[in-house]
């Protein structure tokens, strides 16, 4: 089968698919660099229920840059398809790694989690809440670098105004979101990151349900345990890790630490960020390409509505 070319990229290998479309490994035909390309049907992009979320994701993701965030490199559009080119993470996602290992040793979990929290600290300092932090949304490179991805539900905070939209993934959702209360998106992210940390170590979530229970019963019991904060912290881990999990998974969002405070926690003693400031400067070329794409998508959306 002939490999498809998109602009200066050649799609080389199918990787995965989801509700948004498919992901392919691709190669830059000039430099030879291996990248990832998300292939999205244009008609789906223009659907009312998807359109604003998609533009929001593109706009925010193109304007952030951090070593532990999967970076947008390019965007392209033809008559029927949107193509988004990303860094290629050849180690799978964090969920794959946790499941394959049966749970990570503290030292390995600490390495990945420090990077994840560094990325969360960065977006929080910009006033951005991710709102869908989970194992599947952390990609891993062969060199053991973690990259936060999927900014489809992210939101720019409006001053001190709380967020209202119930979103995310149930098993990672903070109690205040389950309760459909106005919430602080950054504090909700900390809860979700706490669930990620727990699952990295234990290879399961803190919520216990019967294997043969019907889905409605499982959902009801999970919600009940989240709201009540029924979390049994493992006793075979270090005291420092127990303390960090307990702090992050506090049902009172005001008592959860910030990402910056987490990086200063004793569990991370001896670790430093050491990020070159140049690696935090967004790529103006990518911002320009994304801005042009957004304008073109708006035109096509308007034309479709006529």
From TrEMBL:
PROSITE patterns: PROTEIN_KINASE_DOM, PROTEIN_KINASE_ST. Transmembrane segments: none annotated. InterPro entries: Kinase-like_dom_sf (IPR011009), Prot_kinase_dom (IPR000719), Ser/Thr_kinase_AS (IPR008271). Keywords: ATP-binding, Kinase, Nucleotide-binding, Serine/threonine-protein kinase, Transferase. One of its GO terms (cellular component) is nucleus. The keyword Nucleotide-binding applies. GO terms for molecular function: ATP binding; protein serine/threonine kinase activity. It comes from the Eukaryota. Residues 9-268 form the Protein kinase domain. This is Protein kinase.
